[in-house]
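User: Batch of two.

Assistant: Item 1 of 2:
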Amino acid sequence: MEVIQNVVCPFCGCCCDDIEVTIDSGKITGVKNACAIGMTKFLHYGDERNSSPMVRKNGELFKTTFDMAVEKTVEILTNAKYPILYGWSSTSCEAQKVGVELAEEVGGVIDNTSSVCHGPSIEAVQDIGESTCTFGEVKHRADLVVYWGCNPVQAHMRHLLRYSASCVGKFRKGRADRIIVVVDVRNSSTAKLADHFIQIEPNQDYEFISALRMAIRMEEIEQDSVAGVPVEKIEELADILIGCQFGIIFFGLGLTMSAGKNRNIDAALSLVRDLNSRTKFLIMPMRGHFNVTGANKVSAWQTGYPFAVDFSQGYPRYNPGDTSVIDILNRGECDAALIVASDPVAHFPQQAVKTLASIPVIVIDPHLNATSLLAEVVIPSAFVGIEAEGIVYRMDGVPLILKKLVEPSNGIHSDEAILRMILTQIRKRRG
């Protein structure tokens, strides 16, 4: 029996790196320090997993060899004129790097799940700039934590305990030494733990932030209420924000994907800028997939752009709303798709799924999912962080190393290795 310390959890953007995993006879038999979701992933990663490559013949998927699946993938991507390569947020930076090379080689579009989550946040940061920090600074210094449009108690289960509200830092003694504020449209599980809960009307974030900025600048708000919140309560919140020594706003999709999208984030970034004229204040998005931050960083390193990068003209182009995968699918412009560690059929709009159903789709994923069921080629891969190692980026931009804990089944390769084989064969075929 072997006990491995300081394992990084490959589930959410928190990437908790204090997990203790027990290995017995090549299997994970015990997990400590993980949340309920992380523990389930470690202990049950092998349940219902796919271990056989498959290709479609006469409308049905049949088991095949790994080499045949790769050959079919190479044929599809080589013959495609405008393929899309999507997913990437639940795999390693090494695999993401090869994915960008592959997209350039086939003249396709590479996009990650930021398109459907924090893409507007990234666009806003490009417009306004960002005052941010690491989790370590929040843990040791923050006396005011604001959760806006997110519910970490259910989605990032150790966030409050390990990084913000309840943790003991060098200058903070724990929960009693911090003020927690939640701004949301509903009384969530996180709101029930807060010192102050501000319930605003749906799709009124921009208006509420604008009023809050006026209160911070000591300007008069002429209405009796904004976004369903009385002006007196807005002014009270402004006093709380100004009165802290070190404050931070963690924001989620409730702010990013409600009406206004990137303009909401523009306003939130501007709010933090205003607050920094009165005290110390920072802001950070709550990222979902464990390496979606890495997907943005790797794409930006190699192309200059964080997502939705189009190589069809022979050079990288970036125009979200035009070069993002959902828009390309809705317009029916692509003629093949490579999906890595994602399930767009389960989450994309109906028209986008219809296009996917009409073109050859290749899926590289440890599990069979809804997208696999309409694919031409399915290639099972190793679980990153359990059966394969690799680098990931935590939501605060800190790089961490995922460990290989157990050996994958025979014939199962990492995403990076599979993509490298595909890229090598395409280059050979093209001379």
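Item 2 of 2:
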Amino acid sequence: MSTQFWTWIFVILTFGTYITIAWRSRVKDTKGFYVAGQGVPTVANGAAVAADWMSAASFLSMAGIIAFAGYDGSVYLMGWTGGYVLLALLLAPYLRKFGKYTVPDFVGDRYSDTARLVAVVAAIFVSFTYVVGQMRGVGVVFSRFLDTTVTVGIMVGMGIVLFYAVLGGMKGITWTQVAQYSVLIVAYLIPAFAIAGQLTGIPIPHVSFGRVMTELNAIQRELGFDEYSSPFVRNSQLNVFLITASLMIGTAGLPHVIVRFYTTRSVRAARWSAFWALFFIALLYTTAPAVGVFAKYNLLQTVAEQPRADMPAWFDGWEETGLLEHTDLNDDGIIQYTPDEATNELRIDNDIMVLATPEVAGLPGPVIGLVVAGGLAAALSTASGLLLVISSSVAHDFYYRRMRPDATEKQRLLVGRLTMAGAVVIAGYFGVNPPGFVAEVVALAFGLAAASFFPTIVLGIFWKRANAPGAVAGMATGLTLTAAYMVGVLYLGVEPIFGISPQGIGAIGALINFAVTIAVTRATPPPPEHLQQLVDSVRYPSGVDAVTPEEIGR
């Protein structure tokens, strides 16, 4: 049976499972729609957090980036993992104790309604930037393995997300994400263990990839490249530091991850959820460096300096997607892969490496089909979490908290579902017409989150003197300057300042946000006494629930 047959089998089975879970998890009130009734068990919430956090960028792109960037690709491992630890230890328990539905809810109650509005705009901006990359990833997977166009693939993905997110809200998304985590982690680990055994005889990638990397260093030297393990080849030392910092604090500020900690029964459960999520995430992240090494090694052994006519079917398949390209510059029929742009004949997109590696290694069709299902699970799980943030920002933080405080439960739920449907359609449109591909778009989202939410949340929890004018000025300045730098460098040809990469500018934006918030706060009156008491109650290390603004007479 063909690879496409097995791919259809796994896609139909997994999508059928998601739809069944969504139908059984449908909700009838806003608490179920936004925070799953705050009754999700810790292990399940940990798996849902891991699925929410490990997007198409983690599953599809990260190992590909490591494969081609070598040592410099470690910024993604350090940044994303460090950011999660920062979120779990520094922010999540306090935000859960605050007891609200969304990040703009925290910002609004901690600072002011104006700050809430700025946070709503930032949440929508960051989430749309992020979700576009996920939808595009779904389209590319469909087009390569299921013989459809990218547009058809995106429409199928939109239909699935629309069904389970609109029907079940956070409750449906949570239990679907648990299933999606199970699919994606199995899909990621099985080929890694199989290829490790195939190359070294030791089927444990974490142990055997060092030996393969030594051989890869030698191959790269022969082809004229720097050694795979050489540092600071793709990025300067400054950019390695800034990109790592930007990814780290961007991860800690991503609203779709933060909101997951509102779904647990208690603050203690939020801490345990963070522990389980870190365990589940580590399973994939400790394997990714080995997958990157195996992918690059197998690719060079199969393709470099080999006749084009001898290439297997997978080479033609990826060429049709435009993500792999061979141009025979000297008409000798041999594929020359060199570091010199003038003589290099092979161009490979980072994002195909995880999907292509099982084919390159000659693994059987069921394994390839499982990896495709895993890639789709990673993209859809993150997309659904982001769409919920967009929906809650509009329907809860803007419609209910700003426009219609007297809205009934039924009206709020209807607006939430309509907003979710509208967001799916817009995300699908930009998925068909993207500003960039998966990793690039996602990296921009992290930078924007770093420059907007992280300083505001940290100061809101740990500095009771922080006030509303400071928070509004800080978020607006950080978000605007960071977005302007990204657009200028990436799309308008502006020369980077001090060579700083657009992927690393979020760290600078966060520092500017901190500085502006502190300066404006110092120059304006302190917040009311009841807000300062609120900050103390959130930080007080007891099992007592947070004192809400309503309880202290706001």
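The radius of gyration is 24 Å.
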